[in-house]
Amino acid sequence: MASVKVLGAPVSPYGNRVQIALNLKSVDYEFLVEKYGSYSELLLKSNPVHKKVPVMIHGEKPICESLIIVQYIDEVWTDGPSILPSDPYDRAMARFWAAYVDDKWWPTITVLRNAVGEEAQAAALEKVIEGLVPLEDAFAKCSKGKDFFSGDTIGYLDIAFGSFLGWISAIEVTADIKLLDETKTPGLFGWAKVFRSNAAVKDVVPKTEVFVEVIKKFAARANAQ
Asked: Over 70: is that where the pLDDT of 225 sits?
């Protein structure tokens, strides 16, 4: 069997996606830590277009972009649990909401993380919370009353959104607010607890305090400008 290497960073949700998918499939891999701003020659050679993490190298073949890698893992290692739903409509919905997370919701987190001043932070926080409402509805529809977006087991959308839970927890601490609220978003609140405790996830996503320190560094850098 060809070797598997993952080039990523511990606090990168995109790299975490690849690790979780490989863990679900019980695939052994080597995790090579890349430092932001000083990427290795191997990374730059393996991802010359975007020059960023994550990259998975299967044998000698590099695959880039986190969700593309997750789909590749699902197609190559068919012995483990399926990551993408087998039903075409369910599969389309999982891809749609994963794109929503990356293209629409996560950018609001980035704005919040970089916001300076109480007014800007409050406005950014409101956008983050607004963006969770459709995901609460999507969970109710996709999960069909089960623990995960994909039903009984972790799937594509669980990985796509769940990889951001470390950042969500850290923002809850630093902003002293509940983003995933037991009253307002009960589905996501319960899902997050089950997802983070899963064996494929719990040793991948760093603890909340690690992300808190990263947020403090971002804030210090923004205030210094």
From this structure: no
Residue type, 170: A
Residue closest to 150 by CA, chosen among 20, 29, 53, 19:
20
> Taking the CB of residue 213, how many other CB atoms lie within 10 A of it?
13
Rounded Cα–Cα distance for residues 76 and 59 (Å): 13
> How far is CA 184 from each of CA 38, 67, 88, 129, 209, rounded to the nearest angstrom?
41, 29, 31, 10, 25
CA distance 166 to 143: 22
- Residue 195: the pLDDT is 98
**pLDDT tier for residue 118 given thresholds of 50, 70 and 90:** confident
Task: Return the amino acid letter for 38.
Answer: S
Are the C-beta atoms of residues 94 and 150 closer than 8 Å to each other?
Answer: yes
DSSP string, 85-116: -SSHHHHHHHHHHHHHIIIIIHHHHHHHHH--
What angle do the packed helices 165-175 and 106-114 form, to 10 degrees? 40
- 134, 100 contact by CB (below 8 A): yes
In the prediction, which pLDDT does 114 show? Answer: 76
Task: Dump strand ranges (E) for 2-90.
Answer: 4-8, 30-33, 55-58, 61-64
pLDDT value at residue 113: 76
What is the C-alpha to C-alpha distance for residues 213 and 131, in angstroms, rounded to an integer? 25
The 3-state DSSP composition of the chain as helix, strand, coil percent (nearest 5) reads 55, 10, 35
80 pLDDT more than 70: yes
